[in-house]
């Protein structure tokens, strides 16, 4: 029977495109999809072990090779961890932003992105996160950030951990904002940000005590605004903070590529 209708010109007698059949998902892919959905829906939580092979084979009505192929699919997605030789089987490992950080860094390198590109993107992410945090944050959340300033950041401005710890504060602030999308993007950029800051210091621009004191005053001012609930003021302050930092850290390095920092 001849096909009719608007799709007829695109569909030949043997399938889509006049000869390319629509591929049905493999059984292993369907099993992997069901298990993946169970993780997403919270039926399987981080740290849970999958049921043993016999139970899964019976439940899905599949062979052992098919089941193992499904588990390998999930392992490649870093949704499960399989310890070879272990009797406990596959364990659920819910990934964080690091799962996309490395491939994203590679894409930035391949695209010729500069550190200026990266810092401009951060200027779009973090101020909005500051607004959201001011408007919806709790006392416990603000206390956690204050503890980071008191205990995590080094008190010596010459510390080689300053780049790492300040980046941790920025990332945690975004994570606590309650917006999962902003948190994932910020987490993706986190490693590159740390390396960039360390790169700047290595280029002969150590932080002076005056710069360190100014940095800490800016962080404390942010905390005051967050606790006040003034989202607009928190957003404006953090945007200015990032603009000033970008100007200082990019001076003379405007065209440095991400690949030069990632090494």
Walk me through the structure:
The chain has 263 residues and is mostly helical. It has two domains: 25-92, Winged helix-like DNA-binding domain superfamily/Winged helix DNA-binding domain (Arc Repressor Mutant, subunit A); 97-250, Up-down Bundle (Four Helix Bundle (Hemerythrin (Met), subunit A)). The protein is built from eleven helices and four strands; from the N terminus they run E-E-H-H-H-E-E-H-H-H-H-H-H-H-H. Helix 6 runs antiparallel to helix 9 (209-228) and helix 9 packs antiparallel against helix 10. The longest helix has 23 residues, at 180-202. Mean pLDDT is 83; it is low at 1-20. GO terms for molecular function: DNA binding; DNA-binding transcription factor activity. This is GntR family transcriptional regulator. Residues 25-95 form the HTH gntR-type domain. Keywords: DNA-binding, Transcription, Transcription regulation.
Topology of helices and strands:
Blueprint: E1 11-12, E2 15-16, H1 27-40, H2 53-60, H3 64-76, E3 80-82, E4 90-92, H4 98-111, H5 115-136, H6 139-152, H7 162-175, H8 180-202, H9 209-228, H10 231-250, H11 258-262
Antiparallel strand pairs: 1-2, 3-4
Provide a brief overview of the structure:
63% of the residues lie in helices and 4% in strands. The chain is mostly helical and 263 residues long.
Question: Which stretches are low in confidence, meaning pLDDT under 50 for 5 or more residues running?
Answer: 1-20
Helix-and-strand structural type: mainly alpha
Q: What share of the residues does DSSP label as strand, in percent?
A: under 5%
User: How many structural domains?
Assistant: 2
Instruction: Based on the coordinates given, report the CATH architecture of the largest domain.
Output: Up-down Bundle
The CATH superfamily of the largest domain turns out to be: GntR ligand-binding domain-like
CATH topology of the largest domain: Four Helix Bundle (Hemerythrin (Met), subunit A)
Number of H- or I-type helical stretches: 11
Task: Give me the count of strands.
Answer: 4
What is the assembly state of the chains in this entry? single chain
Q: Termini separation (Å)?
A: 61 Å
Level-1 CATH class name of the largest domain: Mainly Alpha
Estimate percent helicity. Answer: 55-70%
How many whole angstroms does the radius of gyration measure?
Answer: 25 Å
The SSE order reads EEHHHEEHHHHHHHH
Order of strands side by side in the largest beta sheet? 1-2
Question: What's the story with the biggest beta sheet?
Answer: 2 strands, antiparallel
Mean pLDDT: 83
Keywords: DNA-binding, Transcription, Transcription regulation
GO molecular function: DNA binding; DNA-binding transcription factor activity
Region (Disordered): 1-22
Protein name: GntR family transcriptional regulator
